[in-house]
C-alpha cells in the first residue's frame, strides 16, 4: 500500500469566567421547551444543544456538532488537555512508536462497555478495522495511514502504518478513537448503532427524541474515579441561540454552549450566570475556488485578502469577541507561527495595485456563496463593504449549509468563493491536509498546493518532536498563505453561559465541550 499524506483526510489564555450582575426576564417562549424525563432522586445536568445529531455512532456520523453528544457515551483511546490539545492518556494509558511505522498502545485495565462486555485489545482491533474498512464508515480517511492492527495481548495493541504518522495519537482522540462495543454490533463491522450508542463513556444512553432531547444515566462501572460528576445528563436540542440563552437564564438548562458572540452583552445583564469563554479552532473564512477565472491569479486572491480589515470584521460581526485570523490556527495553538501571521496584512492600497497588475484596474465582480441565517448575512455585508473600497463587487447567493456547501465543493463547483468556517481537527496536520491537498473535498478547485507543501506536511508527521513539528507545519502554512488558497477571517471564541450551580465546566480549544467533570452545587 502506498500512502500519501494528501489522502488523509502555546498555552490557552485564562478562560474568562465571571459573575454577571443584572438581569433579563426569561419570557414565555420557554414554555415550548421539553421537560426532563429522567427519574427523580439524582442530580441531572441539563444542557442546551445546538443541533440534532446526525448519528450517535462515531463511525457513521458526519456533523461536527455530534461530538458534544458522543463524548458522553464514548471514551477515546487518547484524550487531550483542554487548553492546548496536547495528547494525554485515555483508554490507552500509554503509547509508543517502536519504529517510525509501528505504534504500540497499552490499554487501561478493568474497563467494561455499558453492556458489560470487556474492553480489551480485541475490541480496539475491531473498532479500528471497522473505522478504516467498513462500507458504512465515514472516517476512513482519518485512519488511512493504518495498514494493519494486531491484538498483541489482552491489553496491548500493535498498529502498523504504511508510512510514519506521528499525528495518529491525536487522531485517536477524535471519532476514530471512540470505542463502541463489538458485542452490541453482533461483531458485525457493517452494523451500526446510530440510535443506540454502547461505549465505555461516563453515561449510558437513555433516550433520543428527534429534534428535542437526548438523555443518559450514570455508568456506575466507569473506570475513572468520580466520573461522571452527576447522575444523569439531558441535552435539549435548541438550535436558536436566543432561545438557548433564555433557557439557561430561566433555569430550564444549566449550560448553554456555543452561543453567539453578539449575545455576550445580553449575558452581561443576566443574574446568576457566568460566562465561560476562550479561543477555539473554529475559523471563519472564505474558501476560494482557485481554478475559476480571475481567481486563478494569486495576485487577485492576495488582493481580496489584503482588502479585509480583520480587526473591524471581528468588532462588527462578533461584538469584538474573538481574534483576527492570520492563518488557519488561533494564537493559542502550539503550532501557531508568528512569522506566518505576518504574511496577512490589511493594505487596501496594495490590494488595488495587485488588481491593476492582474488586469482588473476597472474592478472585479464575483459570484459569491453563503448561508441565509442572520449572522452569516451580516458577515457577508461587512466583507462586501470592505471590498467595495478596492472596486470589487459581488452578490451572495445563499442556501442552507448542506446545499450551499455541496454545490460549491461538490461536482457542480458553483461560485467563486464561499463564506463559511473551518471547525478544526485535534492535530493541525490533518487540518492542513484536508484543506489544501489537491484531491481534498475542501479544496474546491482541486488545485495543487505549492511545491514543497505536501513534503512539509509529511515531515510534520515523521517526527514526534514538537519543535520539529512546529517548524514543518509553519513551512506548510507559509506556502498556503503565500498562495492565498483560502482567506482566513477571524477566530470564533467559545461563548458559554452557565448557571450558578455548575462547577468544573471549562471551554476547550477544540470548541466542543465535555461534561464528564461537571458537578452541580
Helicity level, as a percent range?
10-25%
C-alpha-based Rg, rounded: 23 Å
Total strands: the figure is 20
Give me the CATH superfamily of the domain at 280-492.
Dipeptide-binding Protein, Domain 3
Q: How does the overall form come out from the CA principal axes? A: globular
Distance between the termini: 55 Å
Please tell me the overall pLDDT: 89
Task: Could you tell me the CATH topology label of the domain at 280-492.
Answer: Dipeptide-binding Protein, domain 3
Structural class based on helices, strands and sheet pairing: alpha+beta
Count of separate DSSP helical elements: 14
Architecture per CATH nomenclature, i.e. the level-2 architecture of the domain at 280-492: Roll
The main β sheet shows up as: 12 strands, mixed
Low-pLDDT sequence parts: 1-41
Quaternary assembly: single chain
The proportion of strand residues reads 15-25%
Q: For the record, what CATH class of the domain at 280-492 applies?
A: Alpha Beta
Amino acid at each position: 500500500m502506498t500512502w500519501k499524506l494528501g489522502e488523509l483526510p502555546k498555552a490557552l489564555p485564562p478562560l474568562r469566567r465571571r459573575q454577571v450582575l443584572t438581569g433579563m426576564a426569561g419570557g414565555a417562549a420557554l414554555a415550548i421547551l421539553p421537560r426532563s424525563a429522567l427519574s427523580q432522586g439524582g442530580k441531572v445536568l441539563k444542557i442546551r444543544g445546538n443541533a440534532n445529531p446526525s448519528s450517535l455512532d462515531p463511525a457513521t456520523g458526519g456533523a461536527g456538532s455530534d461530538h458534544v453528544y458522543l463524548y458522553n457515551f464514548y471514551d477515546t483511546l487518547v484524550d487531550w488537555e483542554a487548553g492546548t490539545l496536547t495528547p494525554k492518556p485515555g483508554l490507552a494509558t500509554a503509547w509508543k512508536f517502536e519504529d517510525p511505522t509501528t505504534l504500540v498502545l497499552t490499554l487501561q485495565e478493568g474497563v467494561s462497555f455499558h453492556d458489560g462486555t470487556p474492553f480489551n485489545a480485541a475490541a480496539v482491533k475491531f473498532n479500528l478495522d471497522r473505522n478504516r474498512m467498513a462500507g458504512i464508515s465515514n472516517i476512513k480517511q482519518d485512519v488511512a495511514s493504518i495498514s494493519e492492527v494486531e491484538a498483541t495481548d489482552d491489553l496491548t495493541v500493535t498498529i502498523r502504518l504504511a508510512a510514519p504518522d506521528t499525528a495518529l495519537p491525536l487522531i485517536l482522540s477524535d471519532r476514530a478513537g471512540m470505542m463502541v462495543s463489538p458485542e452490541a454490533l453482533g461483531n458485525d463491522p457493517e452494523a451500526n448503532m446510530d440510535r443506540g450508542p454502547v461505549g465505555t463513556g461516563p453515561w449510558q444512553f437513555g433516550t433520543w427524541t428527534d429534534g428535542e432531547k437526548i438523555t443518559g444515566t450514570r455508568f456506575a462501572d466507569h473506570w475513572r474515579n468520580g466520573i461522571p460528576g452527576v447522575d444523569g445528563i439531558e441535552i435539549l436540542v435548541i438550535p436558536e441561540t436566543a432561545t438557548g440563552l433564555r433557557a439557561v437564564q430561566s433555569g430550564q438548562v444549566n449550560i448553554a454552549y456555543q452561543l453567539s458572540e453578539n449575545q455576550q452583552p445580553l449575558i452581561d445583564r443576566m443574574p446568576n450566570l457566568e460566562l465561560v469563554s476562550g479561543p477555539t479552532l473554529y475559523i471563519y473564512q472564505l474558501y476560494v475556488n482557485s481554478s475559476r477565472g480571475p481567481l486563478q491569479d494569486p495576485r487577485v486572491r492576495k488582493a481580496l485578502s489584503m482588502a479585509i480589515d480583520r480587526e473591524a470584521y471581528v468588532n462588527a460581526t462578533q461584538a469584538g469577541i474573538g481574534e483576527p485570523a492570520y492563518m488557519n490556527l488561533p494564537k493559542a495553538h502550539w503550532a501557531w507561527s508568528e512569522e506566518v501571521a505576518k504574511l496577512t496584512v490589511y493594505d487596501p492600497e496594495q490590494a488595488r495595485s495587485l488588481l491593476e497588475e492582474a488586469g482588473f484596474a476597472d474592478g472585479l465582480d464575483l459570484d459569491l456563496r453563503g448561508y441565509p441565517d442572520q449572522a452569516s448575512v451580516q458577515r457577508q455585508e461587512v466583507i462586501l463593504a470592505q471590498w467595495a473600497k478596492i472596486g470589487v463587487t459581488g452578490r451572495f447567493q445563499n442556501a442552507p449549509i448542506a446545499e450551499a456547501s455541496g454545490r460549491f465543493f461538490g461536482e457542480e463547483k458553483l461560485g467563486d468563493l464561499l463564506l463559511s468556517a473551518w471547525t478544526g481537527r485535534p492535530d493541525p496536520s490533518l487540518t492542513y491536509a484536508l484543506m489544501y491537498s489537491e484531491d481534498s473535498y475542501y479544496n474546491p478547485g482541486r488545485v495543487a498546493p505549492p511545491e514543497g507543501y505536501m513534503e512539509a506536511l509529511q515531515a510534520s508527521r515523521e517526527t514526534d518532536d514538537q519543535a520539529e513539528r512546529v517548524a514543518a507545519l509553519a513551512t506548510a502554512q507559509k506556502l498556503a498563505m503565500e498562495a492565498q488558497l483560502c482567506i482566513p477571517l477571524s477566530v470564533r471564541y467559545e461563548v458559554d453561559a452557565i448557571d450558578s450551580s455548575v462547577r468544573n465546566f471549562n471551554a476547550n480549544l477544540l470548541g466542543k465541550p465535555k461534561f464528564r467533570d461537571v458537578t452541580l452545587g
